[in-house]
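Here's what a typical entry looks like (SPOR domain-containing protein):
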Amino acid sequence: MAKKNNNKITGELSQQSLDYLTLKKQPFAREILTEESFFNNQSLTKITDSLSHQIQFSDLLLLVEGSVGSGKTSLFRQFIQSDIANTKILSMQAEATDTLVQIQQKMSIHLQDLGDANHLEDNLKSLQMFDQTPLIIMDNTHVLSDTTLQELFRYQNQLKRENEINLKILLFANSGMIDTLQKITDIQTDQMYVQTMPELSPKQLDSYITHKLRCAGYSGEPLLESSDIQQLFKKANGTPLDIMNQTAPVIDKIVANKIKPPTAGWIKTLIIILILSVIIIGSYIIYTYLLNDRTNNALPADTAIFEPDSVKVNANTQEIIEPVINNETDIAEVINVLESDETDEISLDATQTGEPQTVHVETSTDDSVIMETTEADNINIKQESLQETVDEPVLEPEVVEEKTVEIIPEPIQEAVKPLNPALLQLNKMGLQDANWLNQQNSNNWALQILGAREPETLLKFARQNNLSADTAWYKTWLTSKPYYVLVHGNYINRDEARVAIAALPPKLRSLKPWVKSMKSIQQALK
């Protein structure tokens, strides 16, 4: 049961936090798992792919174990929804009171469409008519008694021996299950495939919390800082259950700080800082103003004064020539002269005609300048104005005749994808391919020694182990993605294939190859 703390279940947010974050439900509470609520990551994807591969291509006992709250049940619920080729999934939840008979009854529930529940063996055998292999997937296996576990594996061997039914088993259990099985059964380590639930890294922890909040309806900015994530990672054991229990109080504290105003002490400190800032900025502004005022008012004794009588205008450029400096003229007189409304007659040198001209410049209070020019100049200006007013002819836009061109698309030819270079190299080394496998007797058997996502992995392995014509490769599909497999030998029956494993080189034997029928290989090629 969940522990209680201050009348609130550990892992649940307070009502204040739920209201503030506008959540529709508790983000860290246990719930019915859906495809949207399942948190998937790269580690879990690898586990799912590996289990799917082992289910299809091996007869090993499959075991997934991990600590309490590590996400085994979530993975179990997600995995039983997968579609595994040629496999009939018989899923069940183990209970402490279960016996072999009760487990058989749970198996029969999944086979009701095949016949009477009292004829379990017949229903299991009829699955072969549909090219399906029965698979028991059991959660919470650690609660079963040792006696029930022993009877389950004895029943598995009995089905294979008496009815040729290959019943496969995948167990989900707490840590330590592998030790229990080695003590109470004769199953060896090389007959089991064990997966351990991974711990979440700090980055995955952050993604997990964000995912749970989004599923609860939160759409705001991230609540946790990087420092919060690091603290949670140190406190939690890397399991989802511990992370949820540790995260809830942290979020409650963050929300409380956002809602409640700062304490009085912080307000006083903030006011003092603001007052000091205003004083410092004000003092700086006053000091700067006084310094600039003193600089502007200071007038050295030898400052040059402009003499108004010496202002001249260049007749060519109509620019005012720099006045003559006279230190003896009073500043007030200069200002009075510049502001005067009287007309000054200034003599200009006409460099173009060689004759002096007289131009009257009137200086008014609105700073406008009026110039009198000769009559000849006025005539020239009028002539230039008349020339500018002549209307230019308007060009009519050229009419371009539009033509419609019908484009007929060429038929698209589907390109033939070339064979991967690594697979071509395998063929050059003498390895057989899918064509050879399809020509073999479907009653024969082979040894599967390797499966990989990339063809380059097969090529590297084949070169390291000097594989040749007694080995074949083929392409199949695993979880809707390409998967490449190496099989070795061509044996008349299953027993001959099993004996051949002992004759393999030590490096190949260390990979724990398993026997595989040619019929199943040929079906995978279709």
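Residues 264-297 form the longest helix (34 residues).

More examples are in the samples folder.
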